[in-house]
Amino acid sequence: MDTAYNLEKQFSKWRHEKASGKTVGRQADYRDINTIGNFSIQEGRLLCKTKEAVYDYGIVHLKDCPTLYNNHNIDDISAIISIVKNNMPNNISIDTWRTHRSALKNYRDFLSSSDSSDKAKPSSHSNKRQSVSTINPKCALNTIWYGAPGTGKSYKLNELLRNSFAGRYERVTFYADYLHSQFVGSYKPITVANTDTVKQETGAATHIEYRFRPGPFTRVLIQALNDPNNVYALVIEELNRAEAASVFGDVFQLLDRNKDGRSEYAISVSEDMREYLETDGEGPNYLTESGRTTLGKLTETDDCSQIVIPNNMYILATMNSADQGVFPLDTAFKRRWDFEYVDIDAGENATDKNGERVVKDKKWVTDYRHEINEHLLNAGVPEDKQMGPFFLGNANGSVFGDADFDKAMKNKVIMYLFEDAAKYQPDIVFDLDKIGTTKESLSLSKLFKAWDDKNYGIFKGLDTQPRPTDDTSDNDEDDHDNGQETGDSSEDAKSADSMDPQTENDPQ
Q1: How far apart are CA 485 and CA 252, in angstroms?
Q2: Which residues are CB-contacts of 105 (< 8 A; sequence separation ≥ 6)?
Q3: Which residue of 46, 373, 473, 503 is surrounded by the most CB atoms within 10 Å?
C-alpha cells in the first residue's frame, strides 16, 4: 500500500477515536471521516477529491497532487488553511466553508501528532490532559495578597514573579471604571495600510477597520496555551478598586480549578473572540496551531468556541480592603481564591541583598510606628488601616533629620492619619495640647508646621527628638538609634542599596 492510502486509513482511525463519545448529529456527521471536507461539493471521502478545490482556492502549486494525502507537509497544509480562511467561494455556504476549514485543521492536527519520521505509521495522538513540567511557584493558582498599606504586598508578589515566572507575566491595575471588555478584549478601530491598487482607486493611503483586540486576560491565556511547559501569570494590582465580579464576567466561572489545576468548567466565548482565537496571526498574542490543539484537548471540542484556564496559568492579585473608594468582594467570588495575609510587622527587620536594613530608621519602624498603630488599634481602628513598615515608600532609605524623611512623614504619614485612618478622631493619635489647637480647628498646615517644630512630639505618647546635626550625628548615634548599627556612618546609611518593597507600588 502507498503512503497516501496509509495516511488516509490512519487519519480515519485517528478522527474516529477523537470523535468518540460525542453527541451524534448533523455536525458530528459532517466531521465524520467519510462525509466531511468534500471541497468539490460532490460525494466522496474526506480530502480525497480536493485537487480541483485547491486549485479553485488559488493554491496552484499543489494542483498536481492526486490528493492531499500525497502531501504531509504541515507548512503546506497551514498555507491552505490560511487561504481557505480568507477566500470563501461564492458557490458554497458559510457552514460548508467552515466545515472545509475544520477538516483541514483536523488533518493538520493529525500530521502534527504523528511520528515525524514516518507519517504513514499509526498516530501516537493522545487525548490526555495537559501537564506542566516546570516547578510550580510557591503559591496557589488563584492568589490574593492582602494586608495593611505599607506591608510589602506588591514586593512579595514581585519577588515571586522574578523567581518563578522569568518575565512570563502581564500586569494590570484595576480602577473604578475598568470594564470587562478591557479585561477580556473587544473590537477596536485600527488604521490599515491600503494596497497599491486601492491607493490608485481611492487616493487614500490607509483605511479604518474594526478588529478584535485581546485584553490582558486573553493575552496571558493565549501565551499559556501556546507554551504549556512553562508557567504564566496574570497579575492584578488593586483588585478591589473595580467591581471585580463585573470585570471578570463569565470568566468568573473559570476560577473554579479542579485537582489538576485547570478550570473545572469551560465557558463559551463570543463569536468575535472565537474567530480571533482561530486566526493564524504572527506574534505572541495569537494562538498557534499547537495552542489550539492544547485548548481542544482541555475543552474536548474541535474548535475555539470554548475556553478554560490551563494549569500553567496563574492569576495573582493584591488588595487592601481599608483603602477609600474600594469595592467589596462578594463571598462567591472570594471563595475561588486563596488569600495570603501579609502581617503588619513582618518586614520591619528586612535586609537588602547587601545585608543592610531596608528601612534605615530603626527607631521609626520598630518604636514610633508601633506606638501610633497601638493608639489606632485601641480606638477601634482596624488593623488594615494601620501603617506597615514600608509605608514611607522611597524614603525608607533615609533617616530622621534627612529632608526626604521629613517630606515623607508629612506627605505620607501625617496626611494619611489626618485624612483617612484618624479622620474622625484625630485626637487619638495627635497630641492637640502640644500642637496648640483643638479638634475642630486642626488642619494639615498646622500639623506640618508642628512637625517642623516638635517632630515626633505631635503624636500622643511620643516626645520631641533632637534633630541630628553635622557636629553631633557621629557622637549621638546611639542616643537617636536612627536605624544604623554601631560603627555605621550616616553616609553609609544613605548610600546603601535600598530594596524598598514599595518603590513600584506605593504604598501597599
Answers
A1: 50
A2: 81, 289, 292, 302
A3: 46
Strand 232-237 vs strand 267-268: parallel, antiparallel, or unpaired?
Answer: unpaired
pLDDT digits (tens, 9 = 90+) for 231-243: 999 999 999 999 9
User: Which residues, other chains included, contact 206 with Cβ-Cβ below 8 Å and sequence gap of 6+?
Assistant: 191, 192, 193, 194
Q: What number of residues does the chain have? A: 508
CA distance 36 to 28: 9
Contacts for 171 with CB less than 8 Å, ≥ 6 apart = 235, 236, 237
Residue 407 near residue 395 (C-beta atoms within 8 A): yes
Sequence-ordered list of residues with C-beta below 8 angstroms from that of 19, at least 6 positions apart, any chain = 28, 31, 32
Angle, alpha carbons 164-223-191 (nearest 5°): 130
- Residues whose CB falls within 8 Å of the CB of residue 111, separated by 6 or more in sequence, listed in order: 72, 74, 77, 119
pTM of the model: 0.65
Q: How far is the CA of 504 from the CAs of 21, 131, 275, 339, in angstroms?
A: 52, 34, 37, 22
Q: Which residues contact 126 (CB under 8 A, 6 or more apart)?
A: none
| DSSP helix/strand/coil, 498 | coil
| 174 close to 239: Cβ distance less than 8 angstroms | yes
Cα–Cα distance between 11 and 445 in angstroms, integer?
Answer: 80
Taking alpha carbons only, the member of 120, 110, 54 closest to residue 302 is 110
327-362 residue pLDDT tens: 888 899 999 999 999 999 988 888 887 888 888 999
- Whether residue 224 contacts residue 313, with contact meaning beta carbons closer than 8 Å, is answered with yes
Do residues 125 and 293 lie in contact, with contact meaning Cβ atoms separated by under 8 Å? no
User: By 3-state DSSP, what share of the chain in percent is helix, strand and coil, each rounded to 5?
Assistant: 45, 10, 45
The one-letter amino acid code at 449 reads K
